[in-house]
Design goal:
about 450 residues, six-stranded mixed sheet, about 40% helix
Length: about 450
């Protein structure tokens, strides 16, 4: 299940909430696979082109290539900025922009265009499990050996890997899953950013004693209840490196794996110790952000997707809002769970592969990312080595950089496994509200996951 992976411009809170629901509720299952209609000879020719034509080769004459992106306003705005900057650098290449719907309708359109050999030269699409449904080895250019892929950080690469080969470059910035916190509250109480779960609990006790809500739970919007579980995956994979593979193959589960069950146990502990607002099922996402900005609540487990709404509604409070990764039980393995960007892919039957490579290469260069950042500020660091973020990014984004610089990041589970049960929001609300125990609802979630895995036709289920 791949989630919203695009930088979003500052938009109204209602729209942002709807989009965030999409981020955590998931997209289409992508269980229908597309097949190539091209002959083996055509595929072989495209593969040969991938290995013999360098991305830096300049075209001899004016060439027009096409780019397909989803029709969200921010996506289109960013794509236009990228194209304008690219054409200035490459006057012999013109890029025609095409758009498609988002969600399941867009997924089906991409599959159809690939199946009918009518895909654009380059297209921006999800990374992770939805990519797998496109049969990349049949439809997308292998870029494993392209020089520009050497600049991509390793933690992104599994999300565009299929049968051991790389098929896409990153498109946009990351989002972090962790804890927003009010820096003023922390300073007033003499608190430090926690590196372990025990330190976080100790902070919560001091915050609670000061009559401030330690953990904001806006569970009227139930998707927000998932964050404590989902943002814990860096810690899960640190303790159980094979969890994602075994989970996908039905060899383990959240209830069976002590490392995964710990994610539910953390949520249960927050509930049992009374750290969350008592009216959590009546508090919505917008109210939660307001509590954070005004210091009425000290911490909010959330994706950095929330930055645009905070910047729009509380611009004078942004200096007081920071971010840290959800800690595990050991300071030695303190790291950040990351929602990875989508991918930039080249159609392997394109007639303009050299030019398409140049566009993709430019899209992850300092100049290309600066062009898109000028119209849409990133919500997290880039997954490209040596590329600098704009100076005007939020402090929340700056707080994420040390995790990337030290290599302490890991993709969220949904980027390395297609299995995610649709009922997780309701299940985690019950744990967070104290209605059910971690073990009880981890078991319930495993049953929810089983239904989803069978629908996907995964082996072992």
């Amino acid at each position: 299940m791949v989630k919203g992976q695009k930088m979003l411009q500052t938009i109204g809170a209602t729209t942002t909430t709807a989009l965030l629901i999409g981020v955590l509720a998931g997209c289409s299952n992508g269980s229908t696979t597309a097949s190539s209609s091209a002959s083996p000879a055509a595929t072989a020719a495209a593969t040969a082109a991938s290995s013999t034509v360098p991305a830096s080769e300049a075209p001899a004459k004016k060439v027009t290539i096409s780019l397909l992106v989803d029709n969200a306003q921010d996506t289109v705005t960013s794509a236009k900025a990228l194209i304008e900057a690219f054409e200035k650098k490459n006057p012999n290449i013109h890029v025609e922009l095409e758009t498609r719907p988002g969600g399941g309708e867009g997924d089906n359109l991409v599959k159809t265009r690939l199946a009918t050999a009518e895909m654009t030269d380059v297209f921006f699409y999800n990374s992770g499990s939805l990519l797998q449904a496109l049969n990349p080895d049949q439809n997308i250019l292998d870029v494993t050996n392209e020089p520009f892929m050497q600049t991509v950080i390793d933690s992104f690469k599994p999300t565009v890997t299929y049968k051991g080969k790389l098929y896409g470059a990153p498109n946009g910035a990351t989002m972090g899953g962790g804890w927003f916190y009010n820096k003023k509250v922390y300073a007033d109480l003499g608190l430090k950013v926690p590196k372990t779960w025990a330190e976080l609990i100790a902070n919560n006790e001091k915050i609670k004693a000061a009559n401030i809500t330690p953990v904001i739970a806006p569970y009227k919007d139930d998707w927000t209840s998932q964050l404590v579980v989902l943002a814990d995956f860096y810690n899960v994979q640190a303790l159980d490196p094979k969890f994602a593979d075994n989970y996908t193959a039905n060899k383990t589960s959240f209830a069976k794996s002590p490392a995964a069950l710990r994610s539910f146990e953390k949520l249960e502990e927050l509930a049992k110790k009374g750290y969350m607002n008592k009216d959590l099922t009546a508090t919505n996402y917008d109210t939660g952000l307001k509590m954070l900005a005004e210091g009425k609540g000290a911490q909010l487990p959330m994706l950095t997707f929330a930055i645009p709404t905070l910047e729009q509604n509380y611009p004078d409070k942004m200096k007081d809002i920071g971010f840290f990764a959800q800690p595990g039980d050991s300071a030695d393995s303190n790291g950040l769970t990351v929602w990875m960007p989508g991918g930039a892919y080249i159609y392997n039957k394109s007639k303009h592969i050299p030019e398409a490579k140049k566009l993709v290469e430019f899209s992850i260069s300092q100049d290309g990312l600066a062009a898109t950042a000028a119209v849409s500020k990133p919500t997290g660091p880039y997954v490209v080595k040596g590329v600098k973020l704009p100076d005007n990014v939020a402090q929340v984004v700056k707080d994420m950089i040390p995790y990337f610089d030290s290599g302490k990041t890991a993709p969220a589970l949904e980027f390395v496994s297609p299995v995610k049960g649709p009922s997780l929001p309701q299940i985690t609300v019950e744990v967070g509200a104290g209605f059910k125990t971690a073990k009880e609802n981890a078991t319930v979630y495993d049953k929810d996951v089983e239904k989803q895995a069978k629908q996907l036709g995964l082996q072992g289920w």
